[in-house]
Structures are given as C-alpha cells and as structure tokens.
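[agent] plan:
  1. take the single chain provided in the ticket
  2. run structure prediction with default settings
  3. attach structure tokens to the ticket
  4. add a short note for the reviewer (M.T.)
[agent] executing step 1
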Amino acid sequence: MNIGFIGSDQELCRQLRQASQTEGVFSTQETNDMALIMDTLKTCKLILISDRLVQPHELESLKELFQGSAELVYLMSYTTEPSITENTALVCQRHGIGVCRPKRTVEQIVAHVQHHYMGGASVVKTGGQVIALIGTRGQTGLTAATLSLASEIGRRMDQKVAVIGLNAFTPGDAFLTYTGSYLNDLYTQIQDGSILTPAELVAHMHKTKHFSYLAGNTDPTKRYRYSSEAVAHVIACAREAFDVVLLDAGSNPDNNLCLQALLHADMRVVVTTQQPAAQEMWLRYVPLVRMVSQEQSLSFMLLINKWSKQWGDTRENERSLAIPLLDWLPDLKDEGMLCELERRLLTTAEHPKYKEQLNLFVDLLQSRFKWSFREEMSKRKKWGIFLGGEQLSEWRKRDFHVAELDGQEKMITQPANKKTGNHALSDQFKELCTLVRNDFREKNEKRSDKDMKKWQALQHDAVVGKPEAVQLFMGEIEEFIRKHQLQQVQQPSYYESLVEAVFQQTFGLGPISVWKKHPKYPKSQSARIMGRKIFFDIPGEPALQPFGYESEEEVIENIIEKIRMKDEFSHINKYNPKLELDLEDGTRVTIMIPPLVRRPTIIFRNYTMRAPTLEDLVGGGTIPAEALPILRGISQSLLNLVISGEVRSGKSTLIKAIYAERRREGRVAVTIERGHSELKLSDIHESDQLVEIVVKTDEEYETVFDIVLRSDYSFVIVGETRSIEGELFLLSCERGKGGSMTSYHTERVANLPGQLARIILQRFPNRQYQEELIRVAENLHIAFVMKECDDGSKLLIRVTEIRLDPYTFEVSCHDIMRWEPEQEKWAYCNDLSNDSIRKLKETAPEFAEQALSTLKRLAAEHPMIGSNVEKALGNQDEEEQSA
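[agent] step 2 finished; step 3 output follows
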C-alpha cells in the first residue's frame, strides 16, 4: 500500500516505511512542486493529514479532491481541550474521514494506522504487565495504595515488581525513606533521544525488599514538558526490566505523564474515595480521557480507597461512576497519618481488614494475569501458617504488623532447632516472632481508641530504646512464651535469651544491639553497620562479627527508620544522605546512605566516660599524675584553648574534663555545635548556667554570635572547628574575658595557626592571610594534642603555648609538656610566657602557684630532649612542607 502524508514529521514517515504492508510513503515536505504533489497523492490508497498543516475547515475540500481514490485519516496533535477534540472528530465523521486522536507517540500512530487501515494485527505488548492507577482527585491516597499493592504483589508473587511515579504534581515519597532518583532527574536522558536504558532505570530506583520505585516529578517547571515519546520510553524500559509495572498516574489527566500511562496500560484502575467531590471530578475527567482514546472510552476498574460503612455502600459508588468495582480498602484514619509521619507503608498499620482487602486485591490480579506464587509462600501455606506482611522490608512490617493465621493453628509444630553456635534466624524463630506480633494485635483489638493511642506511644518508645517501654514489651513477650511453652525455640546464638532475641528482631535494632552486652563494651568506642555486615571496635578482638543483617535493604528501611524515629524532625534521603543524632542512652549515631556512600553505613559511638574529670584521665593513663597540677591550673584559668588531634583521639572527653574544672557559680558558658548536641554538658552539670546552641545551617551562623553576646557569657566552647566556627571561636576570644575552647582535627601543632587562618579566609576571602594568622596567634594561648594508641587508649602527647612576636610578627609553638615515645615518658620545659603566667595568676590564683612550681620542678627532673620551640608554619611554609 502506498501512503501519502500531508505533514512534516520525518520520524513518522520513517516508521511507516518500515511497516511490512507499506510499499511506499510520500510526504509533501519532499517537494514544493504542487503539481507533482497532487499527482503523487492520487496514487496513494491512504492519506494521513496532519492538523499542523490542515485546519478542520479545510477537510471538506480535501475529501472532494480525493473522493473515492484514497481513504483519509486526520492526525490530531496540538489540542488539549476535550470540546475542540470532539468537535473536530464530529467534522471528520461528517466527511467520512478517519481520526487519530491527540497525545499519541509516533509508535502509537503507526500501530493505529496498521491496525485500522492496513489490515494488520493489533500490536502485541512484550515485557511485563502494566497496571495504571489514576486518582479521581488529590488526597485519594492513590500513591499510598499503589505502594501497598506493589509491596504485597512482590511479597506473595514470584514477580519482579516496580512502581513508576508518573505524577506530574507530587513525587509520592511520603510513605518511605526514599533514596532513589526522581522522574525529573531523568528528564535529559528520556527527553533527548531516549538514551535511558532499562538497566539505568533500575539503577536510579529506590529498592525495597519486594519492589523498586521511581518517585514522580518534583520540578514544577517540567509538569507539562514531558513529551509523549519520553514518557512512553520510560514505560517501555520498565516493561523490559520488570514482570509487573504499576504506574502511579496521578490525579490530573491533563498532561502526557498521566495520559501515556493510561494508553500503555494492560489494566486501568480508578482510585476514588466516597467523597462526592472526588466522584464528580472523575466525571469531569471523562471527556479529557476520551480525547486520547481512539475507541471513545478506555476500560477501567474501580478501587474505593478510605472506605467507611457510614458513608454508604460500595454499590452506590459503582453505579454513580459507571465503573465495575474491583475492590475497596478501609479508612485507616489516625493509623494512616502515623504511617506517613513515620515514613512507612500502610501495610505496616495494625489494621487486619486493610490486610484482608489488600490480599483480596492481589488475588484478583493474580487470577487476571496468572502470576505464580512464591515458593516460600507455598511452603508456608503447606505448614498451615500464613505469615501476612511480616516479611516486607519496612521496619514497621516487622514490628507492629501482625500475621493472619490460616485456620485455627496458632502454635509452632516444627521441632526446635537445637543447633548451638547458629547465627541464622531459623524458621521456627521467625514463626515465634510472628505469633508474638499476632498476640499484640489481638490485645490491641480489645482496647479502646484512647488506650490504643497510649499503646502506640509505648510502641514508639520501645523502638527508640526507652528503658521503661523496653522492659514492658519484654515482659509481655516473656509471658507469651511461658504461657504457650515455647521456651524450646532456639534463638540466634548471639542473643543472651529468647525473650531478648524476639524483642530485638521485632521492636529493636536487631543484632547490632548485642554490642552493648559485650563484656568489653565499656572500653569499646564504636560499632558499625557497613552494608549488611557488623563491626565492633573491641580492643584485642577482630572487628568483623560472624553475624549481620539479611540485606542492605533491611538496614536502610528497617534499622535506619527506627533510629530516625528518635528525632521527629530528622530526615535522611537522597538529597540529605547524612544524619547525626543521639539514642536514648546517649550513643551518638552517624548515618550515611547512597549516593554519599556506596553502601548504607551506620556508626555508633560510645562515650566511655560520660562525665569525665582530670582524675579519670589520670586513672586511664591519658595524662600523667605528676602533671595534674599543671593541667588543673590551665583548666581552672581563662586561657583560650584548642584541643587538637585526629578522629577518636579523645578531644571531646578532654573538653568535658576541662569544663568540669572551669565551671563556676555565676559563670555563664555557651556551647556552639553543628547539627546536633554532642557535648551535652547540661546533662552532666544540671545546676550550671549553660546556653547550648545547635546550629543547623550555615546561614544560622551569621546571627549566632549576636545570641552569644546577649547571653552575658563568661566563655564559649565551640564544639568542633570546621569552617565558620573558626571565626566564632576568635570572636568569643576577642569579645569575652577569655577561657574559650574548641577542638580541631590535626596532630601537627605547627600547622594549626595557619590552618585556622585559612579556614576563616574560606568564609571571608577579602581578608588578608597574614592578618588572620596574627589574629589567631594573639588570641590562642594553649594547644593540647591528643592521640589514639594502637590499643584504643587515649594519650595526651603535647601541651604547647602559641606565641606571637610583637616585633617580627613571627608565630611559634613552645612545648611545655611532651610525650617522648622512644623513652616512653613525659618530658617538660619551664617555658611559659609572661603573658600566660599573668593570665593564669589573674584568673586562677589559687591554682597558679602550684601549677607553675610543678612545671619548674618537672622540667628539672624530666627535661625535654632537643628544642621545645617550633616555628608555626605560614601559608608558604605549609605549601613547601606539603611538597
């Protein structure tokens, strides 16, 4: 068949020529010779007419021109107004001209032409099945229902499941801790030549245990800029990579994202609520949907979300919308809001009816698409136990969702696993955890709404580790095990008891929790989760533990979510991939997720001394007993100090010990820390006047010193100098009476003044380096240098005075105390400047004399080998040394 095309779409012509039924394709753009154009078109049996060149009122003339010689088809492309589309279709019908409706890709136009005008069969869609879900309006719970459905399909069916967010107006990332890319992040890859591959799509998606997810559009400027071809390409990539693809089409069918989802779907589901406004809105959408449907209507099934019996029967909604009902999901009310606040799927809510209806939904889809069940699910059904949703990767599915039981069987009938030294979670142990959850649910069903809210608060407290709540839940678990005589179940060997194991696997942090039960925990500084592996920093023992988590997804969605609950305002996602906070017991936790790191990483830091004193440091071997008077004199005075050293060298511990000496009745101290409070001095010294400032953003640093000035401070402690903190430290030294402290990451004291000066220049580039170097030397009196030894212990290796020559402006470091590693002893030098001695006597008169006399005596008894003076490096010196 020869085809003529009155238009200028080269790609359409190319694809038409590739069709098997096509003999030739002629386009009017190939020549300007009108006589040749007319002669050629008269040889064509089918003529396609683009609305970009021919207006509807010109169609009658074309029909008369080619009457009887060719069949005409009008291609509508521009309009998005349903009334215009329908009027144009009416004009075409009057003249006997076929119609191809707007918003079609080139492939869809070719497929339509082949099927309707060339005798070709319908195009067979290859790859996974596509189900599009569209909401009747916003707030119908479309995205939450879609994610719940995907999770349940992935859990029960042997299918690789994906959710593609094609919502132009909201990304849909509220019900999980999202770490993937967003649709607009792929805009260039899909818009410019469709270079995105299925493998690349998968790499960009957020992974859960049972499905992958690409969240929707977050860029308001791109809502209407996605081309039909671009959207079709994303769907095609998803089809190729997954067995089941759920399309969250949003609730506004006025854009290509939504319309292409409907056109590509093997099944379409309208998600509505019982609100009259939601149903009325859908009736307004129908003409817009018909606009892109060649057959005037696409087939839909109905899902009623947030259903409540008090608002009427489901049949009323079915009749009013004229859509056959597929299923309904109950209204979760406060539980649904709690899920959103805690960023977890609705399948984790304690609502048996929701689970029942969701299972029915999946069963209906299974019968429609003939999916096979997972082998694991078949095996569990054979055992007579249906474990519901506890295998889902979100942590609440493990914690609070309770399994439904198949039949009446509630006890474990399998023989207990008595194997010792087993680190795996046995099937019997997993079943016990499920039965415990079931017991909690059954008790909750009997509670009033008021008592239920109290119980949910206790559950939250147990998760974040509050001792009272933990003990209450462990007591409930112990009672259940005793009552049903399940003591024979073997827990993983790293737990001390079965009760502890069940609690940790359901409500706690899992195997990392045994770190705090280790005999050497008081000496352990940290533990880490890296990927799914667990490491303990225990002196003299291997770090890697023989147990871990089942998957990295479990770490991200289960463990990290539990930790994040400690602070309701904390968030961690792709754009904020690092989070620092403190657990209930004071453990500092640092969390990092992709793309900042390759694998999820959680670092738990244990402060082995909660309220350290100088005597404690003497007892631990950090400082020598002989030098205690010297260090106490410096600590009691208002000399400005920098505590330096590498990571984990004990800087924060020394600052706390110095503060314990420096604090006075009537003194106001200010602490300034970035991100979160690490020092927590007010927890140790409850009667002190402490202004503890936690700065969240760099912008807040601009005004923070005004707050400091209005606090009538005596001295300031800047938790750690990284950037603008250097300026705050110097301002507090200049404006106050002295006694300010900060910490800094270096062991090389000679570099310290220059590095602090350069840090300030990074923030204030118009200043002069030499002036800032002099400023640092004028205000900084003493530097303490800390070091971590091979066995994990801490050691004070240097106490140095920073001096500025007022005539040459040379900056130098003068050691008054130094650890000599070759002799394995401390050495001393009585070389404290007159300015520091004067400051010492003025601000700590009762301690100054003993400090100075002790220094003089020790310098005579244990003199330093070699010079105690080191020139502080300037900018040029540091560059030469680095070279």
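[agent] step 4 note for reviewer: The first strand starts at residue 2 and ends at 6.
[agent] ticket updated
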